[in-house]
Amino acid sequence: MRIGVTLGLLHPAVWRDFAVEADALGYESLWVPEHLVFTADMAESAYPGTSSGRPPVDPRAQLFDAPAFLTAIAEATRQIRLGTYVYLFGLRHPFIGARAFLTLDVLSGGRAVVGVGAGWLESEWRAVGLDFASRGRRLDEAVTVARRLWTEQVVEHHGEFYDFEGVHFEPKPVQKPHPPIVAGGESKAALRRAVRLCDGWVSMPHTLESAKPKLDLLHQLLEAEGRDRDSFEITVSAFELSGPDEVEEWEALGVDRLIVRPYTRTTGAVDDLRVFAERYGITASAAQD
After folding, report:
1. Which range is least confidently modeled, 38-42, 178-182, 231-235?
2. Overall number of domains in the chain
3. Quick check: 183 and 116 in contact, CB under 8 A?
4. Which domain holds residue 187?
5. Does residue 288 carry a pLDDT above 60?
């Protein structure tokens, strides 16, 4: 089981130091949350990731360009993979998103993981003048274009949202054919997107019980699509693991990676990271394997 760790809920001032320690301890991957902008009325929006429906973050929270911040972290780390949880790819032209992750992949030596999602905050889409209702289709097209930009010599595209004549897009990513793209989202449409267009799926926070229906559906969709299971990675956010024995239960459900959050606040988070690594047998040598 690969064990990644999220930067979510940590103050950005400690992200770099936290990442350096996670890398040294042997965590497999590091995941940074992403939004382009929070709106003043965000508190009135329904958030699908909590039972209360309230957004888990203050609209005044500090936001950074996620691939850019991860590129800076890449310079200070050695082997930890660097992913977004998740990047709203459809909010940008695919030239911008593809260029950002290309840069991260090249400067990290091939450690980028492109976590993408359609988004839940309607007002964020309104703020940039885009139709929230079409976000899924826009994301699908943007991902399709990005894959071509990363792998083809000349790309011409004429679609519903993006239209351009032949372009060169160099250099190509270090990872071949391109950095893995994992789709977030809990709806059936999101799971279909992961299976049809992406290299994996990443969940919102789950327990074993709450994740099982999603995982069952995901495996059904993989079988119906004829996807090779070995070419598709399943990542689940398990922020409240009960102990090391639970990891085996996740493996039995077909999960390849767990994203954990072994802290409750910024103060003491690095110490909590060390305690978790010791308890769960995370080592630098295991990460290299």
Report:
1. 38-42
2. 1
3. yes
4. 2-288
5. no
